[in-house]
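ok trying again, last paste got cut off:
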Amino acid sequence: MTIFLLCCAAVPTAAFCQQAIAQEGPPSDFVRLHDIAPSIVEDMRYAGNDNFTGRPVPGYAKGRCWLRRSTALALLAVQKEAEAEGLGLVVYDCFRPQRATRAFLAWAQDPNDQLTKQSYYPAIDKALLFKEGYIAEKSTHSTGMAVDLGFVGQDFGTPFDLFDAASATDYSSINETANANRGKLLALMRKHGFENLPNEWWHFNLPGAADAELHDFEVR
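nice, full thing came through this time. structure:
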């Protein structure tokens, strides 16, 4: 068993350092989203090349969505209501192993790797992504209580993971359709208990995620 001490310098001072333990598999209260809500589309970006690093991210052996059971059940309720309106959810990231967050930090500190700059961070130096809050040293995704998502085939004004002010949920200078889609997603997710990260229209987590235990098992 390997233990990594994660010192959370990028979060408020009330936060504490946690031990992220490399585990053999998911905890007993984690489930595959497909087993709970099979109609939700899984487009797990960090398992492939279509993400801001331009390559598969360590920790994602498979493109599968794992979550705490409570999170998956809440998403099922959102999906049922969305389907009643002719919509459907697509998830881009769910549980994120801590080893993936460490890989993000290493990527951000490599000034020579600019492969995806034009697509994902055209207006910001990658070295500032942690400081500006676009990537977190302590991610709520590692608790199994957070998810990145949208509606299948719908316009949200920016793509997932665009590190730019335009990705903020309430950004005003987007088209009417995108603004409506952001508002609808926000309302549905809040109705079923989720909180939104204001600078990312796609990120939602259940209350208490910021203080929950972090995990580090391979996504399979």
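cool. Helices lie at 33-36, 69-84, 98-108, 117-120, 176-191. The chain is about 25% helix and 15% strand.
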